[in-house]
């Protein structure tokens, strides 16, 4: 039994917990970061080589948060001394008259985000080997790009430890007892913290059950598909091919997105922005490939330079809320238990700013961003707090 009381204990060392822990340590808080698996691991949501970073969103609040997030990524890069971001631009395509595409376009204009609007007749002068769908508009978020995910995660964890933080992996938290000082138990130790941050990704509800709370979260398995270029280099980052998002594709209900070939030369990552429900402890038992069929049809129609069958399929998970917005809030009954959850497949790019606001909540400060879109209260009719 350890008698030391930490200022904060962060549970879950994915990108959100690691960024939160780093912010706390930077603010001279005695911080413990606990992770159930031996690091690095590929069983949550933060592994893999790449993620998209962009300001192109329909909602003002995401675009606004991204302004500071870009600055914090640049700071992190400097502190870590490694490249974490590569600018590629992001091509957004979507039905010109749809609410989603119009909203995104308006948000970009309202916030004066550097954007190139592509007319249909000039589309292929700028973007080759992509067929723009009939009735679709297109724009480019010019400062968007690729984040090197695995490298970022390791850099943040390293910086956290260099700032005096304590990182313990291979420690599954099996109990959280609320109180003025929160007691956190693992199979082999008991820790105490003045505050606790729960950033457990797909396992959020398992952890929250200890504190009498359940959120309406759905965990889905994502088939991370890489498609072979018929002519190597066609969609390469070195040929300045951008990331892309296809809003409202004909083939399926959810968006399709892609990143230029980069981490695996000759292979382009193209994924469906939804998957089938899974138990996070039994992810690989979910074998549904309906999303891959949707992608194969899209690739055939719109990306003619790719072989329309995936060459590599990896696995990852999303933890999805009903409105696809995050949960960034304090526990409704215990102000010193802070929750970061439900990142719904788009949280990586925000992780430095999420780390900042979660650390502010843990330190009892007023968060520097308006967190009203992310409150637990919005699920009130669905969440049941038994305490
Ligand atoms: C295929 C894919 C593509 C994506 N693309 C993008 C993108 O392009 N842009 C973007 O911004 N975002 C993207 N995302 C989303 C982004 O990666 C996630 O939002 C983010 O990684 C979530 O991080 P997290 O820390 O909440 O979860 P995780 O990374 O899952 O971390 C949670 C951690 O908590 C640990 N844990 C759980 N329970 C316990 C316990 N009891 N005790 C101790 N530790 C515990 C887990 O082991 C895990 O390490 C993508 C996600 C996927 C899967």
Notable traits:
binds flavin-adenine dinucleotide; 387 residues; 8-stranded mixed sheet; disordered C terminus; 24% helix; 29% strand; 2 domains; 20 strands; D-Amino Acid Oxidase, Chain A, domain 2; 9-stranded mixed sheet; FAD/NAD(P)-binding domain; 8 helices; alpha+beta
Question: What's the number of structural domains?
Answer: 2
Structural class: alpha+beta
Biggest sheet descriptor: 9 strands, mixed
Question: Span between N and C termini?
Answer: 27 Å
CATH architectural grouping of the largest domain: 3-Layer(bba) Sandwich
Helix content: 10-25%
**Under CATH, the topology of the largest domain is which?**
FAD/NAD(P)-binding domain
Q: Strand share of the residues?
A: 25-35%
* CATH domain class of the largest domain: Alpha Beta
| Overall average pLDDT | 96
The CATH superfamily of the largest domain is identified as FAD/NAD(P)-binding domain
Tell me the total number of β-strands: 20
GO molecular function, one term: sarcosine oxidase activity
InterPro entries: FAD-dep_OxRdtase, FAD/NAD-bd_sf, MTOX
Pfam families: DAO
Catalytic activity: sarcosine + O2 + H2O = formaldehyde + glycine + H2O2; L-pipecolate + O2 = L-1-piperideine-6-carboxylate + H2O2 + H(+)
């Amino acid at each position: 039994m350890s008698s030391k009381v930490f200022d904060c204990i962060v549970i879950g060392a994915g990108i959100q917990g690691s960024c939160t822990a780093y912010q706390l340590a930077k603010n001279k808080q005695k911080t413990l970061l606990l992770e159930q698996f031996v690091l690095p691991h590929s069983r949550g949501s933060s592994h893999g080589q790449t993620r998209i970073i962009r300001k192109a969103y329909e909602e003002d609040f995401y675009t606004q948060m991204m302004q500071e997030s870009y600055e914090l990524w640049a700071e992190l890069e400097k502190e870590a001394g490694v490249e974490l971001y590569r600018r590629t631009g992001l091509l957004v395509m979507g039905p010109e008259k749809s609410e989603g595409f119009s909203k995104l376009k308006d948000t970009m204009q309202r916030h004066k985000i550097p954007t190139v609007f592509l007319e249909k007749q000039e589309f292929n002068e700028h973007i080759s080997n992509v067929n723009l769908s009939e009735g679709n508009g297109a724009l480019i978020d010019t400062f968007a790009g690729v984040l090197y995910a695995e490298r970022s995660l390791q850099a943040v964890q390293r910086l956290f430890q260099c700032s005096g933080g304590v990182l313990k992996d291979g420690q599954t938290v099996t109990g959280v007892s609320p109180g003025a000082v929160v007691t956190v138990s693992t199979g082999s130790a008991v820790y105490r913290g003045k505050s606790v941050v729960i950033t457990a990704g797909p396992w959020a509800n398992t952890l929250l059950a200890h504190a009498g709370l359940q959120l309406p979260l759905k965990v889905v398995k994502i088939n991370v598909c890489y498609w072979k270029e018929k002519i190597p280099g066609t969609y390469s980052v070195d040929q300045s091919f951008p990331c892309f998002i296809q809003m409202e594709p004909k083939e399926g209900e959810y968006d399709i997105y892609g990143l230029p070939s980069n981490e695996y030369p000759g292979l382009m990552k193209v994924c469906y922005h939804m998957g089938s429900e899974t138990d996070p402890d039994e992810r690989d038992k979910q074998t549904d490939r309906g999303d891959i069929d949707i992608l194969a049809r899209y690739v055939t129609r719109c990306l003619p330079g790719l072989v329309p069958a995936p060459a590599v399929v990896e696995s990852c998970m999303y933890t999805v809320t009903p409105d696809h917005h995050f949960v960034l809030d304090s526990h409704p009954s215990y102000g010193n238990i802070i929750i970061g959850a439900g990142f719904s497949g788009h949280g990586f790019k925000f992780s430095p700013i999420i780390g900042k606001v979660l650390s502010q909540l843990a330190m009892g400060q007023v968060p520097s961003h308006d967190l009203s879109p992310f409150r637990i209260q919005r699920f009130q009719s669905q969440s049941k707090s038994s305490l």
